[in-house]
Amino acid sequence: xxxxxxxxxxxxxxxxxxxxxxxxxxxxxxxxxxxxxxxxxxxxxxxxxxxxxxxxxxxxxxxxxxxxxxxxxxxxxxxxxxxxxxxxxxxxxxxxxxxxxxxxxxxxxxxxxxxxxxxxxxxxxxxxxxx
Length: 131
Description:
- The chain is α+β, with helices and mostly antiparallel strands and 131 residues long.
- The chain has two helices and seven strands, in the order E-E-E-E-H-E-E-E-H.
- Helices cover 18% and strands 47% of the residues.
- Strands 1, 2, 3, 4, 5, 6 and 7 form a seven-stranded mixed β-sheet that branches.
- A hairpin with a 2-residue loop joins strand 5 (61-75) and strand 6 (78-91).
- It is globular, with a radius of gyration of 14 Å.
Protein backbone atom coordinates (compact mmCIF):
# COMPACT_ATOMS: atom_id res chain seq x y z
CA UNK A 1 0.00 0.00 0.00
CA UNK A 2 1.21 3.46 -0.90
CA UNK A 3 1.08 6.14 1.83
CA UNK A 4 0.78 9.88 1.10
CA UNK A 5 1.18 12.32 3.98
CA UNK A 6 0.39 16.01 3.82
CA UNK A 7 -1.05 19.02 5.59
CA UNK A 8 -4.00 21.35 5.29
CA UNK A 9 -4.01 24.79 6.93
CA UNK A 10 -7.00 26.99 7.69
CA UNK A 11 -5.83 30.60 7.80
CA UNK A 12 -8.04 32.76 9.99
CA UNK A 13 -8.04 36.53 10.38
CA UNK A 14 -10.66 37.90 12.78
CA UNK A 15 -13.82 36.01 11.74
CA UNK A 16 -12.73 35.31 8.15
CA UNK A 17 -11.02 32.30 6.56
CA UNK A 18 -8.72 32.36 3.55
CA UNK A 19 -9.86 30.33 0.55
CA UNK A 20 -7.74 29.71 -2.55
CA UNK A 21 -9.22 28.95 -5.97
CA UNK A 22 -7.44 26.22 -7.97
CA UNK A 23 -6.06 27.32 -11.33
CA UNK A 24 -8.03 26.07 -14.33
CA UNK A 25 -4.93 24.33 -15.75
CA UNK A 26 -4.10 22.45 -12.51
CA UNK A 27 -5.65 19.52 -10.67
CA UNK A 28 -9.15 20.08 -9.29
CA UNK A 29 -9.63 23.15 -11.53
CA UNK A 30 -11.86 25.89 -10.16
CA UNK A 31 -12.39 24.35 -6.72
CA UNK A 32 -11.83 26.42 -3.58
CA UNK A 33 -9.60 25.11 -0.82
CA UNK A 34 -7.45 25.81 2.18
CA UNK A 35 -3.67 25.78 1.58
CA UNK A 36 -2.44 22.18 1.47
CA UNK A 37 0.43 20.04 0.28
CA UNK A 38 2.46 16.91 0.78
CA UNK A 39 5.37 16.03 3.03
CA UNK A 40 8.76 16.20 1.31
CA UNK A 41 11.95 14.36 2.37
CA UNK A 42 13.64 17.65 3.31
CA UNK A 43 10.86 18.58 5.80
CA UNK A 44 12.07 17.77 9.30
CA UNK A 45 8.54 17.48 10.73
CA UNK A 46 4.96 17.55 9.48
CA UNK A 47 4.69 20.97 11.15
CA UNK A 48 7.51 22.12 8.84
CA UNK A 49 5.46 20.83 5.89
CA UNK A 50 2.48 22.93 7.00
CA UNK A 51 4.61 26.08 7.35
CA UNK A 52 6.34 25.48 3.99
CA UNK A 53 3.12 24.80 2.10
CA UNK A 54 1.42 27.84 3.61
CA UNK A 55 4.29 30.06 2.47
CA UNK A 56 4.61 28.42 -0.97
CA UNK A 57 0.90 28.72 -1.77
CA UNK A 58 0.11 32.09 -0.16
CA UNK A 59 3.33 33.94 0.63
CA UNK A 60 2.27 34.07 4.29
CA UNK A 61 4.55 33.02 7.14
CA UNK A 62 2.87 31.55 10.19
CA UNK A 63 3.87 33.08 13.50
CA UNK A 64 1.92 30.40 15.32
CA UNK A 65 -0.06 27.36 14.14
CA UNK A 66 -2.35 25.17 16.20
CA UNK A 67 -2.43 21.46 15.37
CA UNK A 68 -6.06 20.30 15.23
CA UNK A 69 -5.74 16.62 14.33
CA UNK A 70 -5.56 14.41 11.28
CA UNK A 71 -7.78 13.27 8.44
CA UNK A 72 -7.28 9.88 6.75
CA UNK A 73 -8.90 8.17 3.80
CA UNK A 74 -8.11 5.14 1.69
CA UNK A 75 -8.47 5.30 -2.08
CA UNK A 76 -7.69 2.17 -4.07
CA UNK A 77 -4.24 1.06 -2.85
CA UNK A 78 -3.27 4.43 -1.34
CA UNK A 79 -3.72 5.71 2.21
CA UNK A 80 -3.88 9.51 2.41
CA UNK A 81 -3.31 11.22 5.77
CA UNK A 82 -3.57 14.97 6.15
CA UNK A 83 -2.55 16.81 9.30
CA UNK A 84 -4.85 19.76 9.98
CA UNK A 85 -3.65 23.11 11.32
CA UNK A 86 -5.12 26.50 12.13
CA UNK A 87 -2.97 29.58 11.49
CA UNK A 88 -4.38 32.66 13.20
CA UNK A 89 -1.09 34.52 13.60
CA UNK A 90 0.86 35.20 10.43
CA UNK A 91 2.61 37.94 8.51
CA UNK A 92 3.41 38.84 4.94
CA UNK A 93 1.42 39.70 1.85
CA UNK A 94 -0.56 37.19 -0.15
CA UNK A 95 1.29 35.97 -3.25
CA UNK A 96 -0.43 33.03 -4.90
CA UNK A 97 1.48 30.11 -6.37
CA UNK A 98 0.81 28.94 -9.93
CA UNK A 99 -1.57 26.31 -8.47
CA UNK A 100 -4.11 29.02 -7.62
CA UNK A 101 -5.63 31.89 -9.55
CA UNK A 102 -7.58 33.76 -6.90
CA UNK A 103 -8.11 34.11 -3.17
CA UNK A 104 -10.98 35.26 -1.02
CA UNK A 105 -11.46 36.01 2.68
CA UNK A 106 -14.84 34.59 3.75
CA UNK A 107 -16.87 34.26 6.92
CA UNK A 108 -17.83 30.71 7.94
CA UNK A 109 -21.50 31.04 6.91
CA UNK A 110 -20.36 32.08 3.40
CA UNK A 111 -18.41 28.83 2.84
CA UNK A 112 -21.60 27.16 1.55
CA UNK A 113 -21.52 29.54 -1.42
CA UNK A 114 -18.22 28.10 -2.69
CA UNK A 115 -17.51 24.84 -4.49
CA UNK A 116 -15.01 23.40 -2.00
CA UNK A 117 -12.46 20.62 -2.54
CA UNK A 118 -13.05 17.27 -0.83
CA UNK A 119 -10.04 17.88 1.46
CA UNK A 120 -11.43 21.22 2.60
CA UNK A 121 -14.91 19.74 3.14
CA UNK A 122 -13.43 16.91 5.24
CA UNK A 123 -11.44 19.46 7.27
CA UNK A 124 -14.59 21.50 7.92
CA UNK A 125 -16.63 18.43 8.94
CA UNK A 126 -14.03 17.43 11.52
CA UNK A 127 -12.66 20.73 12.77
CA UNK A 128 -15.09 23.45 11.65
CA UNK A 129 -16.30 24.06 15.21
CA UNK A 130 -12.74 25.05 16.19
CA UNK A 131 -12.46 27.76 13.55
